[in-house]
């Protein structure tokens, strides 16, 4: 008999050789019906897997884990391939993996799939599902495997590359057999609802040196209602895409003559960025930060001294040889700030020293990964480095965390429930990625852990997420699109002070080494703006909106009154425009609403006579008639309070 420990800690005794599906049936028929795969001692296994020794077993379902979803989606990818084989017999098959939000399959076909083709493939998939074909797993020796895959060069290439002695497994369903390691469901009928989403070109193995294949993306679910929820979510994603919003609201643009990953801010975008950057600078200055400007170009030796050259050079732009120097566009600002600190001697009384900068950094992102403002090749970082005594670490890290809460929760209004604190540690099994100093790592990691506990902050730990020079506290934000993103971060660094031989004179009159806290609040201005656009759907808070008020005169007779109002509002620091086009008022209102303008002031003959305003708000609609000074004071207060 075999002893199995289940996920909840309970024990189960089963006969040797029982499959995971048999165990699921033993637990309950309901579980067996929805099981998709299992995890045996942490390894994902097929439902057909026979248990032959004592183990820990988790039985996954579509709803219980990502592994459960992936087994479901991987099975559906084979159904897609079978449908393509029936409709396009000459197709060559590449790979069809599950991904985090569905699956795809790559095909070598004569021409790209049309919308009509995709509709036919989807219908054929539904037929295969209805046929409820059993899915059988088998293995073959290498020579037999190659023979079975005759006419399928991509499959044969994969087989040839398998290590000697490794099992070569296949899955068969009706008239279709595919090379695959699994896991898969037991039959095609287990799939309940399916939808082809899109198609695109994709190079074999991601290399532009190889042939362009046709990739079809799709999704499947156990319930039709889940599919509809997902399609609704995808539509929401489309509406929140900052690239779409950025174009509609004239915030930024890109152009191939400028280059990939190098967006240009239009006047509206420049206004948003200016407000955000002034906001964070003013807040930092009030907290004792001193701001500097440093060059975007530096000698390669600076990054060799800091250690970035060894750990980061693949992400830098190529070296430029100038006279007798080798120069490079900087990817980060900390080495410059180390030299600013070192520029003069410091006493223990001077610390903490907080150096901040809105600095332009350059990173050579792959062309396929650049995306609007979210991932760019030139970014403006809201960066700062705090030089502290060891006894000041806890207080200063606490100040940074308080600043993050003030910015994100108080000023931007994000709920506390959207935040998770992650203690990012090095991967002890992959030390070559990090500065080699075990004692430093143990000290820094334990200090950050202790700080989080003393501040009663709930957190989780993640190995392999540290910076190369030290551990960090990352604040993970759950976005409106249900993504986890890291924007603010606080990092502890004992390494760079050592490399740059930084010192301060202690109370004992001797030289001591400071500790550096790296921190970013808004991260990069670019990524933060993309995040903000997607969170708000472009309906930016009043204090950030590039145009806060739009004045809409009803006829030409009110133009002068409208421009007099504009002058008055501008004098009070309000960003305002006048729409004096010869269009109907309803049309102007709809245009202003599409532009996400917070307030519209409609002025007609009555408003001119009574020296008043007819006010509409973006969220509240018609707010009625208001006195000018009254509305202006209310507006100024809302902007000041960041409401």
Structure description:
The chain has 643 residues and is α+β, with helices and mostly antiparallel strands. Helices cover 35% and strands 28% of the residues. It is built from 20 helices and 33 strands. The strands form eight sheets. It has an eight-stranded mixed sheet. A five-stranded mixed sheet has the order 2-1-5-3-4, with helices on both faces. Strands 6, 7, 8, 12 and 13 form a five-stranded antiparallel sheet that branches. The chain is globular.
Mean pLDDT: 92
For the secondary structure, the number of strands is 33
Order of the strands making up the biggest sheet: 16-20-21-28-25-24-22-23
What is the CA-CA span between the terminal residues? 66 Å
- Quaternary structure: single chain
- How much of the sequence is in beta strands? 25-35%
What labels describe this entry?
643 residues, alpha+beta, eight-stranded mixed sheet, five-stranded mixed sheet, 20 helices, 33 strands, 35% helix
In short:
It contains 20 helices and 33 strands. By secondary structure, it is an alpha+beta fold.
Write the layout of secondary structure elements.
Elements: E1 2-6, E2 11-14, H1 20-27, H2 29-34, E3 35-40, E4 43-45, E5 55-61, H3 66-87, E6 92-93, E7 98-99, E8 102-108, H4 115-131, E9 135-139, H5 142-148, H6 153-160, E10 169-173, E11 176-179, E12 193-203, E13 212-221, H7 224-240, H8 242-248, E14 252-253, E15 264-265, H9 267-286, E16 289-291, E17 297-299, H10 300-306, H11 308-312, E18 320-322, E19 325-329, H12 334-342, E20 353-362, E21 378-388, H13 393-411, E22 419-425, H14 438-454, E23 459-463, E24 472-478, E25 484-493, H15 495-499, E26 504-505, E27 511-512, E28 515-524, H16 525-536, E29 549-553, H17 559-571, E30 576-578, H18 585-594, E31 599-603, H19 605-610, E32 612-617, E33 621-627, H20 628-640
Parallel strand pairs: 1-5, 16-20, 22-23, 29-30, 29-31
Antiparallel strand pairs: 1-2, 3-4, 3-5, 6-8, 7-8, 8-13, 9-10, 10-11, 12-13, 14-15, 17-19, 18-19, 20-21, 21-28, 22-24, 24-25, 25-28, 26-27, 31-32, 32-33
